[in-house]
Design goal:
By secondary structure, the protein is mainly beta. The protein is built from four helices and 26 strands. The protein is globular.
Length: 380
Amino acid sequence: MKCKAILAICLSGFLLLSGCGPSDRNTEHDPEHSQTEYHSPAPSAPSAETEPSDPDETKNPEEQDMVRSLLTNEWVTQETASTRPIAVLIPNEARAVPHYNLSEASVLYEAKVEGSMSRMMGIYEDWEKLDKIGNVRSLRSYFAYWAFEWDAIIVHFGGPYFIYDLLDQTGTENIDGSKEKDANAFFRTLDRDWPHNAYTSGSKLLSSIQKDGYSLNYRSVTEKKHFQFAPDDAPNDLSQYGDATKDASFIDMTASFPLTRCYFDYNEEDELYYRYQYLSGGVDGPHMDGATGEQLCFSNILVQKIVQEDIGDGYLAMQCHDTTKDGWFFTRGKGIHVTWKKISDYGATKFYDDNGKEILLNEGKTMILVIRDSDNFTFR
């Protein structure tokens, strides 16, 4: 995303970001049905012909030295669970797609930058196996604060001048493609034009992290549990909220992201929300991963409304530290209103139902859409 110069960065929890992209398009998704517009509210046994399966495959995950992921609550190896994640800054515009291994991110953020364009940040665990991640673009300060919540090593390609006071703070650990010390962590391809052709890989990141002397183990600077998850035998279908639960098999975010025009369609068979967005040539379609061939999909979708300010020359400030601000939580084709709070740099952004109780996410990947507090979106 483009950078322009300006102003001081964060006051009382304000964080800065920026982005670049094509000019606005006056296209919108055509909803066929009535919608709710949201405004801020006052295995089997082997046969004789087959080889017997590995005995370990029939064991419980706990017996295979598996533990629950802090990001998704899925079963992962002890090594994966104890390794710090990476937070990769990824552009989202027609010239930047397809993305590579974006579907491997356990948690995916999206927020606006300058020019009404949006940028994404993927939080990855088990990232060392990935051979092409990105493309990778520049950092904005508010993404850094969200990365802090996971004790993630930030992976980016430069950024505007004002991010460096934050990056120079003790405890901030990042891999920056614009710095000579980290240049070997990235590579460029011929598949698209600069600046949308910078990528990284797990092996390159590992080498750079070790060279920089960063710890691969969690540093005990964040909360032990970021999200709360529903148990396997009692998934959260939101039915406990009665009339406060709304139908949400289709979530349309085009009013909040007018350039990428993203929306989500719920699949009852696998209980996942599938992501669609603007691709190119005026066409909307499935948001596909260029490496895996998979469409991006999520068990949980969180919409976080945030105080946002234009501080000049297109730069944005976002008040990431706040309390009792609005949002919505969607899962299993339903949705409820929530509030959120974040009270420290490394503290998790927590989401609460209208009774003040922290919500329970379902096992799987989560998409967090951060929008301006005055923006609207629809669902039905």
